[in-house]
Fold:
Amino acid sequence: MNATHTAPASSAKYAWAGGLRMFAAVMLFLAGLLGIFRGIMAIAEDEVFVTTRNYVFQFDLTGWGWVHLGLGIVAVLVSFGLFAAAAWARYTGIGIAALVIIANFLSLPYYPWWSVIVIVMSGFIIWALCVDRGEDVVGRPTDGRLP
Structure:
């Protein structure tokens, strides 16, 4: 009788973690897609961006555009790996989300509100990928490891 009570709680725990992986995959896909659009806007030198004087990390707007475009493309590709529950995508997703945070922090004066939104979004991605233990609903590892 005890086994029937512990199994659903254990399954619910792993289902919750798997749900977080899907959440992270969707959020990383959206962050990547928005990074691609932001990169294209910056490369085209759209009037949406603000130019700030005397900023320590001041770079050319086109340069920031290429950085955001590259990170966005990699983030979208990694999100496909997360949808497939690949272990490499989990670790790479954490790294890409961290790089997205750094890039948005450094380009904060150019598009402040959006940079803050993407930083928070990337923080949730890192949190979701760190909570997920990489196991399926039954508790078996999804990356081919033996239990």
Remarks:
- Residues 21-46+59-131 form one domain.
